[in-house]
């Protein structure tokens, strides 16, 4: 199964009316930047989806910093973008990979299988000299049938059970950078550290210059794990875990779930323990 497409492929199929393109550019430090960039320039035919306005629900006490969007509202948004179950959908961001991966995961979760991330994002497209536009498309509203794939998502209760019972399976994978995992720094969430028992696989190591590494390289990243293992992947708020989710699927893992609320949801419950200390990237804590 393919998860990504190249800029060359998209350029070749740009005028295919069975393909819909979604611009997911965003900047956590400047919440309106993605929208501004879209209005200035985007791939022809692309519609804009905002991480916080369309790809997330409003923040509440629990659920993390980027809760999953209301399903009915997200369904309406994708229908307004002209997306139905038959269309092939290409999502891109600025080339980071995380925001497009968030859209990919959400659309897959709703039951759409023909959705892909554009390797290198808008940066690669623009640097190649391909056509861009300021024109904002107005598509006829489509009909999308939702078929929720619950096997893609891990609940808070499921993660809590793994921690409390010290289960060896499913394996928790923390997708944040090592310094946040060990609790050395925490720029956003209430308390530094990680969910007890989790191993660390920094999401950005699955990409190189804006492109997902191939399946062979992804298998090397997760070589100490068995592809039959049950995996729950998380990050700070459920966004950067999405490219790790894709990377695990590329590596041949079948039983992968995303803990959507992630670490920010976990620490919103003050009674929950957190762990700190050296990086562990092996599933068996007794292996040194």
From TrEMBL:
<keyword id="KW-0677">Repeat</keyword>
<dbReference type="InterPro" id="IPR036873">
    <property type="entry name" value="Rhodanese-like_dom_sf"/>
</dbReference>
<dbReference type="InterPro" id="IPR045078">
    <property type="entry name" value="TST/MPST-like"/>
</dbReference>
<dbReference type="InterPro" id="IPR001763">
    <property type="entry name" value="Rhodanese-like_dom"/>
</dbReference>
<feature type="domain" description="Rhodanese">
    <location>
        <begin position="166"/>
        <end position="275"/>
    </location>
</feature>
<keyword id="KW-0808">Transferase</keyword>
<dbReference type="Pfam" id="PF00581">
    <property type="entry name" value="Rhodanese"/>
</dbReference>
<dbReference type="GO" id="GO:0004792">
    <property type="term" value="F:thiosulfate-cyanide sulfurtransferase activity"/>
</dbReference>
<dbReference type="InterPro" id="IPR001307">
    <property type="entry name" value="Thiosulphate_STrfase_CS"/>
</dbReference>
<feature type="domain" description="Rhodanese">
    <location>
        <begin position="15"/>
        <end position="134"/>
    </location>
</feature>
<protein>
    <submittedName>
        <fullName>Sulfurtransferase</fullName>
    </submittedName>
</protein>
